[in-house]
Every structure is written in structure tokens, then in C-alpha cells.
Specification:
The protein has 448 residues and is an alpha+beta fold. The chain folds into 3 domains: 100 residues, 3-Layer(aba) Sandwich (Rossmann fold); 70 residues, ATP-grasp fold, A domain (Dna Ligase, domain 1, 2-Layer Sandwich), CATH 3.30.1490; 241 residues, 2-Layer Sandwich (D-amino Acid Aminotransferase, Chain A, domain 1), CATH 3.30.470. It contains 15 helices and 22 strands. It has an 8-stranded antiparallel β-sheet, with helices on both faces. It has a 5-stranded parallel β-sheet with strand order 3-2-1-4-5, with helices on both faces. Strand 9 and strand 10 form a beta hairpin. The longest helix has 19 residues. It is globular. The N and C termini lie far apart (57 Å). Bound molecules: adenosine-5'-diphosphate. The site of adenosine-5'-diphosphate (ADP) has 19 residues, from strand 8, strand 12 and strand 13.
């Protein structure tokens, strides 16, 4: 087992990884930017290294600085968390060159899945159902037109290197195509330095259902149920729950086994998520994330498994502690992503936390790195905490969540807390009959 792990991240996820390391008796090294001198992950780690100024390109995204921090501290492995360098194949490769273990899949798996066109091709090979769309990249407007007509409008233009919903354009008819095609290309170029675009059928009322997978790197692969992430704003997840209120256990078993089979065949190592859209009882693959997801705690809650611990065990060569047969989900879990943002515009609201009270009691987990007096810096994403509840069934989980939201106090910055209170009161949420457009439409109605 590793003796010392460096966590190449910040905020709640850095703290979350540190917690598991402490429980495993592994020493931790935090890295931080000058804006994070007083951050909780820095306080809680055994050692810490300042890796640069506030700007993430010069700190959390600086591969040379992080490698140096590993060398100085004698760290044997790096946990990348999510975001930042977590899906950067070059980072994993350079760590390998320095004989430092990247806690995650192989460089080649990160590379394959990081390009959504390659990822789709790979999944087709393993019999995973995909969204109908172009056969690979669409290089010019003529091809885009032919493909869009073949698939049938509406279609979605997507960036092969995409993430965070960037570069995605819905096209409803032929006349719109040209403008949006070039817009998508230039957005993709700007954000990912890669303007490769492909086309998918735009599904009009799907749920976002993702399967948590785990591989031992030697051909063993399992799935740990699903997460329903259909409550979204601008293609970004806001609230997640498991099990999904809109998909049957039999359907999950079927797509779960297909996903686990793909993981086994690939000899995938560690945690991953295979994302699907689900419409009219069919699953369609959209992408695979080769890292721990923000929403992983709801899976941990229902399976009683520490996914970070399993990641570390697999990376160290000790292997996974569970098999498909040993997995038995219990109850229902929901997560709310609490952002320092001002409603109704969702504009970022960094600043000083004047008061913070975390809810507690049975079935409550608060993953956050804020504290009284902490200043949320303006340089990073606005997620300041995740409230996770677990209960015997969905109805009880919703009640528990309402109770916990009432108890949670964050003063000093604006937050999205009230949004969740309102969502819980909506009939469509209560009945579980929502799709990926529900929240967006609801927000539009509220604004009128
Ligand atoms: P990103 O990597 O940018 O997050 P994804 O491919 O994971 O992009 O898709 C993010 C979200 O965008 C999905 O959860 C869904 O809401 C929407 N989306 C993606 N593909 C489609 C599609 N073919 N039809 C309808 N919505 C889609």
C-alpha cells in the first residue's frame, strides 16, 4: 500500500480524498494556489506545497509544479479528484515517467474516452447502444447537412473534445445549421483547442442515467447501479438521485451488465462512469468519464462502499474489496450541489462565509470544505458543498433532504440552497416524472 499520496485538487473533493487516506493510514500532501492558503484541504493534509498563483493554469493545472511537489514530498501516488487534471492523459503519462502512480485508468483509456468520437466507436465495438449520429467527425458544412438530413432534425452538434456542455448546439432545421455549425466549431476551438465536431440525434425528452463502473485493470469489471442526473441546468447536473425513479431495476441490470462487460473487455482500471440518455425505454451512450464523479457519494450511500478507498486499493495493486455478487444496494440517496451563486441569474457569488452550520443526524452527509470565516475565492468553480441524504426509500429521502436543507445555514455569500427547497415542493419532482429539460423549463416559467 502507498505510504504517501498527493492530492492534485482543491475544495471539497481534496478534503474528501484526504478523509479516506487518513482512515487508511496513508499520509497526505495537499497542493494549493496562493488563493487557497487558508483552505481546509491544506489544513487537514499532513503536508502542503504551494504550487503557484491563483490562476488555475499556473497552479492546479500546472503539471511541472505538481510533479515537483511530488518529488519534494516523496509522494508515491497522485489522486486527481475530478476536474482539473483528472482526465489529462499527458499528466498521467508524465507521472508514469517519474514512477509516480496516477490513481485512475491507463493513459490509453483516458485518451480513448477523452475523445467522444473514439469513445463511441469503442462502445459500439462492445455492443453498447449509442445515440444515432454521424459516423465520426463532420468536417464541413456539406457533410453536416447530409448527416443532419439523414438523422432527421432536431440534431445536436457536439465537440469531440467536449465537456461541461461547451460547444453543444441544438439545430432544429436546415437554415440554422450553417451558423450553428461554425459557432460550435469556434467555441470548441477556443475551449479545447480542437474544433472537431460530430452530430447526434437530439433526444427531446430523455433522462440522463449513468452507470458507475469499476475495473480491476486485469479484466474484472463490475457496475454499481445507476445515478439519475436529469435535474440539470445548461447541461450541468444540479441534483442527482439513485435509484432512478424512472427506470426499472431490470432495465438497470441489463444496461449495467452491458457496461460491466465493456469495462472487463477493456481491462479498465479503477472508477469510471458510463453516461447514457434514456428515452422510450432505450439507453443511448453519450460519453464515458474516466474519473470519480462529483455525484459519487450517492452510490457510496446505497452500496456502503468507499469508492476512493477502492480506487487507492486497485492503484496500489491490492485489488477491489467487492465483487458483483457481493453488491447489494440499500435504500435511496439524493445529492444537491450547493453553489455560491446568486439566484435567479446563477451569477457567481464568491466572498466571506460569515456563518456556516452543517446539518446532521441519521442519513446525512455534508461534503464541503467551507467553514466560518473562510473566503470563497473567485477563481474557481462555484461548488461549495454537496448535501447527500440516504434513507430507506425515496419518499423518506425527500423528507430527510427537506429537513436537512432547513438546517443548513450558509451566510455571507449567496447560494443555490433555496432552489432545492423549491424543487422538492414541485409535483413533477415528487412524482419522479422529470426529464433533462424539466428544471430549465421550470426556471423559465419562474422568471416570467
Ligand atoms: P459534456 O461532456 O459537455 O457534459 P455530455 O455528452 O456528457 O456533454 O452531455 C451533457 C448533457 O447534454 C446530457 O446530460 C444531456 O442533458 C445533454 N445531451 C447530450 N447529448 C444529447 C443528445 N444527443 N440529445 C439531447 N441531449 C443531449
Amino acid at each position: 500500500m502507498f505510504k504517501k499520496i498527493l492530492i492534485a485538487n482543491r475544495g471539497e473533493i481534496a478534503l474528501r480524498v484526504i478523509r479516506t487516506c487518513k482512515e487508511m493510514g496513508i499520509k497526505t500532501v495537499a497542493v494549493y494556489s496562493q488563493a487557497d492558503v487558508n483552505a481546509m484541504h491544506v489544513r487537514m493534509a499532513d503536508e502542503s506545497v504551494c504550487i503557484g498563483p491563483a490562476e488555475s493554469t499556473k497552479s492546479y493545472l500546472s503539471i511541472p509544479s505538481i510533479i515537483s511537489a511530488c518529488e519534494i514530498t516523496g509522494s508515491e501516488a497522485v489522486h486527481p479528484g475530478y476536474g482539473f487534471l483528472s482526465e489529462n492523459a499527458k499528466f498521467a503519462e508524465i507521472l508514469g515517467d517519474h514512477e509516480i502512480k496516477f490513481i485512475g485508468p491507463s493513459v490509453s483509456h483516458i485518451n480513448t474516452m477523452g475523445d467522444k468520437i473514439n469513445a463511441k466507436n469503442k462502445m459500439v465495438e462492445f455492443g453498447v447502444p449509442c445515440v444515432p449520429g454521424s459516423n465520426g467527425a463532420v468536417n464541413n458544412i456539406e457533410d453536416a447537412r447530409i448527416t443532419a438530413r439523414e438523422i432527421g432534425f432536431p440534431v445536436l452538434l457536439k465537440a469531440a473534445a467536449g465537456g461541461g456542455g461547451i460547444g453543444m448546439k441544438i439545430v432544429f432545421d436546415d437554415p440554422q445549421l450553417e451558423t450553428l455549425f461554425f459557432q460550435a466549431k469556434s467555441e470548441a476551438k477556443k475551449s479545447f483547442n480542437d474544433d472537431t465536431i460530430y452530430i447526434e440525434k437530439y433526444l427531446e425528452k430523455p433522462r440522463h442515467i449513468e452507470i458507475q463502473v469499476f475495473g480491476d485493470g486485469k479484466g474484472g469489471g463490475v457496475y454499481l447501479g445507476e445515478r439519475d442526473c436529469s435535474i440539470q441546468r445548461r447541461h450541468q447536473k444540479v441534483l442527482e438521485e439513485t435509484p432512478s425513479p424512472g427506470v426499472s431495476a431490470e432495465e438497470i441490470k441489463e444496461i449495467g451488465e452491458i457496461s460491466a462487460n465493456a469495462i472487463s473487455k477493456m481491462k479498465y482500471e479503477g472508477a469510471g462512469t458510463i453516461e447514457f440518455l434514456y428515452e422510450d425505454k432505450n439507453f443511448f451512450f453519450i460519453e464515458m468519464n474516466t474519473r470519480l464523479q462529483v455525484e459519487h457519494p450517492i452510490t457510496e450511500a446505497v452500496f456502503g462502499i468507499d469508492l476512493v478507498k477502492e480506487q487507492i486499493c486497485v492503484a496500489s495493486g491490492e485489488g477491489m474489496s467487492f465483487s458483483q455478487e457481493s453488491l447489494e444496494p440499500k435504500g435511496h440517496a439524493i445529492e444537491c450541489r450547493i453553489n455560491a451563486e446568486r439566484l435567479p441569474t446563477f451569477s457567481p457569488s464568491p466572498g466571506n462565509i460569515k456563518e456556516f452550520h452543517s446539518p446532521g443526524g441519521i442519513g446525512i452527509r455534508m461534503d464541503s470544505a467551507i467553514y466560518n470565516g473562510f473566503t470563497v475565492p473567485p477563481h474557481y468553480d462555484s461548488l461549495i458543498g454537496k448535501l447527500i441524504v440516504h434513507a430507506d426509500d425515496r419518499q423518506m429521502a425527500v423528507r430527510r433532504l427537506a429537513r436537512a436543507l432547513d438546517e443548513l445555514i450558509i451566510d455571507g455569500v449567496y447560494t443555490t440552497l433555496d432552489l432545492f427547497k423549491e424543487i422538492l415542493n414541485e409535483e413533477q419532482f415528487k412524482s419522479g416524472e422529470y426529464n433533462i429539460h424539466w428544471l430549465e423549463n421550470w426556471l423559465t416559467d419562474q422568471a416570467q
